[in-house]
Amino acid sequence: MSGSNRPAVLFLLVWLIFGGTASAQFKENFTYRGYFKDLRAVSIDANGNTLQQNLFHHRINFRYSMKHNFVGGLELRNRAFYGEFLKYAKGYGDQLEYDPGLVDLSWSWINNPAFIAHTAIDRVWLNWSNDKWDVRLGRQRINWGQNLVWNPNDLFNVLNYADFDYEERPGSDAVKVERYFKKGGSLQMAYKFTEKPEDRVMALMYRFNKKNYDFQILAGQYQQDVAAGVGWAGNIKGAGFKGEATWFEPMTDSSEQAFLTSATIDIVLDKGPYIMISGLFNTLGTSDLSKLLQLTPTAGGRLDVKRLMPNKYSVFVNGGGAISPLLNANLAAIGAIDIGGIFLMPSIDYSLKTNLDLSLVGQSFVGQADNKWQNLSSAVFLRIKWSY
Q1: What is the CA radius of gyration of the chain?
Q2: What CATH number has the domain bearing residue 356?
Q3: N or C: which end of the chain has fewer CB within 10 A?
Q4: What whole-number distance in Å separates Cα of residue 158 and Cα of residue 171?
């Protein structure tokens, strides 16, 4: 889609979803919310060089309720990047403009070495539902994962834990149909539209409850593979216990067989702090330590469900809680055990006032080479967020 046509397409989407009228009924059924964020970052590379990056981020989410159980949604984010980081990140504006969906709804309308202004529509959908059925068409998030960090069951839109500033997570251009049954069961069918046939994703997932556990079974096509998986969520003596596993069997010689499984235990202590431990096994893991940096948002931040981590054996540990009613602290760590890599992400969040929050986040990628631990990449982020 050419850049000159995108504003017209955006106007058409708004008009189609939200009715093209400003009547009293329209205003009653129309809602919106969003936020403004200012994110400042200083990063340090493996050679000790420091770079400054600034990001101004605006998001707005629209909803419109229509007759006959229809609801429309449109969500977009506008971001402005500036700082010396852009002098070294050649082609970053073009990288941001890449849209993996069927329709190109991402564009950098200012793209130069000193300043980038970017807009992306990451949700636009029409939903119909009743007590037995739910149908959604358009760009949406299809969340089939059970775990917080690694989701082998999430065939449609994998999340990247390190990309902490993208709270809404990626979406897919898809149609999803869900049929509800008694006793909490459901059957979900989804199809992801793609330009290339070899990139399509289509699958079924059946969910049910047995002995106080929620189970899911899924099967379908993931790009050039046949995929089959299971997932569960329950409790063991008061501790949450979740897990997922998926097998990928190639349909063509250009793909690779893979098996991924992840399990999580989380505990909330009596006085409020929580602890979470998760593990991941991936048969496609490599021994290349440098690939750990693929997790960084500035490296693209996009992951594939068959390569949730670059290595085979990974462990995630997370702990934190409220220090005071207004102050929360958290420490997350990922250990890439077999390649000697560690990712650390401490954070502190403080509520300045209603709808106004201040966050301090650190990220550090370290690795072991020649029997020495060294910094691969580190950054400190200061973010202020106002929600409306």
Answers
A1: 22
A2: 2.40.160.10
A3: C
A4: 9
